[in-house]
Amino acid sequence: MQYMYCNITEGVIKGAMKKLTDEELGKAFNIWIKSYTSSEVDDALRPFLNDRIKAFVPGHQGWLKKARNGLFLSAAAVSKKAKVSRAAYSKYEDCEEKGSITLATLANAAKAMDCELVYAIRPKSKKYFSQTIWTKLLRQGLLHPWIKKCDQKRRAEGLAYVLNKLMNDSKFRREQGWSQQANK
Questions:
Q1: Are 128 and 2 in contact (CB under 8 A)?
Q2: Entry pTM
Q3: What DSSP designation does 177 have?
């Protein structure tokens, strides 16, 4: 998987040390990402980062009704295939719009339409989880006194080292509300 580091504001960088170049930040990210153990989660997230995929909003027409109408299916036909009453299926569509349907029920209704349920949780920023973690680490890591003294030629390696240490620091993890087991 090819990753791109996540830019943060120039002010954060200037406040910590001389401005790092995009090349240095990219190199530091590429070193750091090797120690990020949840990259398979980023791989699974990739298809859902598209801006055209809209987040669930209660009160908007749900996918059950959209799919049923798009496939020219009647509610009666779908309810029969799902082996539920017409009233029960109608309640599925209402519950989906309210956000109170279970995933199992949603998957069963999708199956009755010869469809499948596709489900994901993504950051509101529409960035990889690793980029979200990188940004949090970078804001703190650039303030580390060792980085300010780091040899100009080794800043990327030094930054990656500091961020890896920070990522595994129990105090920092507690402050972020991060699991103590994750990424270990």
A1: no
A2: 0.78
A3: T
